[in-house]
C-alpha cells in the first residue's frame, strides 16, 4: 500500500526505566518477545527517565547513541519496550535510519506469525489495521503534503485519504466476518449449555504452560513451546472425569502486561470462551520471579473482558523448577479446592488436578422440567431409580410433567444414552 522499511533479523532493543511503576515494563520480557518474533538481539540500550520525551520518547543523547549502534551493527530494526506515538516513530526513524517498532507492533507481529486458523488470521489483521490506521502518514512523507483548501491540496493528501478509506472498508469487512464467527461460536455454546456440559477455560500469563497442561489432559497435540504466545488460536477438547462426567476444556491465548487494547477488541470472539466458562483454570508459572505481578495482570485482563466473576481454580505450574517440588491440593475455608500445585512438563500432580476438578464439578446439580409422553415410561422409571424426581404432575393430554434434580454426572449419562430424544422432552 505504501513504502515501509523492511524489517530484518537483527534488532536493537530499547528499555526505559520510569519512576512511575504503572509505566514500567520488564526488560527480560522484551527479550523473550523479540526471541518469539524470530529476531536476534545485537544490542540493548537502557536509560532512566521521569517521563517520556515528547519528540523522541528518549533523550537526544540516547537517539545519537541509537543511531551509532544501528550503523555499527547494521541493525534492521529498533524495538522499544513501550508504546510510541506515530510522530515519535516517524521522528526516530528519520534519525536512526532504520525501522522503529514499539511494543504493540512487536506483539502484533508475533500474533501474525502464530495465527493458523481463518478466524485467528482475521483477528490479527483487524488488530493490525487498527494499529496501522493511525500511522498511515508515515508512508507518504516523501510526497508533497501542503495544507488543505482549494488549490492547495498536495498529491500525497489525496492518496492518504484513499488509503484511509480502503482501510475503513477492510476493517468493516473483517468485523462482519468475525461477527459471523462469533454467532457460530455462540450456537456451539448454547448447544453445550442445553446438554449441561461444563466448560473449563485455561487462562494465565503467556508462557505459563497452559498448552502443555492442555496436552497432558486431552492428548490433543497442541503446539507448545517455551516462548511467548505459542498459542493463539483457541482449541476445545472433551475430557472425561470419573465423577463429573464430560467437560469441555478450552486452551486460550496467553495474557501479557499492558496487552494492547486493539488485540483485546480483535480477540473478543476468542475471549468469549473465557467469559462464558463455568470454571477458569488460572495457570501460573510458580518459578517466575514476577509471579504476583503476572497474577495481577491476568486478573486485570479478566476484568476488561467481564470474566472476573467466573469461579477460579489456581493451578501453580512448573513446580519442578522449585527447590522442593511438592504436588498438592490446597482447600479453602469451605473445604473446596482453591489451588493445585503441579508440573505439566514432568507429568507430576496431574492426578491432583483431576481430583480437584472432580470435587468442584461432581457436586453440581442439574435441574429440569421434562414433559414425557406415555411412551417414555422407561425413561420415567429410570429417573425414579436415580432418585432424581422432585415433583410430578399430569398434563392435559395424559403426559407426565416431571421436575427432576440430578447430579451432573448422572445427567451426562442420560444425555449420552438417550441423545437428542431427551432434549425434546425439556420444557423448562
UniProtKB/TrEMBL annotation:
The keyword Metal-binding is assigned to this record: yes
Family per record: Belongs to the TRAFAC class OBG-HflX-like GTPase superfamily. HflX GTPase family.
UniProt xrefs under PANTHER family: GTP-BINDING PROTEIN 6-RELATED (PTHR10229:SF0), GTP-BINDING PROTEIN HFLX (PTHR10229)
Positions with a binding annotation for Mg(2+): 211, 231
Subcellular location: Cytoplasm
Positions that bind GTP: 204-211, 229-233, 251-254, 317-320, 343-345
SUPFAM superfamilies: EF-G C-terminal domain-like, P-loop containing nucleoside triphosphate hydrolases
Residue ranges annotated for the Hflx-type G domain, each copy included: 198-365
Molecular functions (GO terms): GTP binding; GTPase activity; guanosine tetraphosphate binding; metal ion binding; ribosome binding
HAMAP family, sorted: GTPase_HflX (MF_00900)
Cofactor dependency: Mg(2+)
Name of protein: GTPase HflX
Assembly, per entry: Monomer. Associates with the 50S ribosomal subunit.
UniProt feature coiled coil, ranges: none
Keywords of the record: Cytoplasm, GTP-binding, Magnesium, Metal-binding, Nucleotide-binding
Matching Pfam families: GTP-bdg_M, GTP-bdg_N, HflX_C, MMR_HSR1
Function comment: GTPase that associates with the 50S ribosomal subunit and may have a role during protein synthesis or ribosome biogenesis.
CC terms in the record's Gene Ontology section: cytoplasm
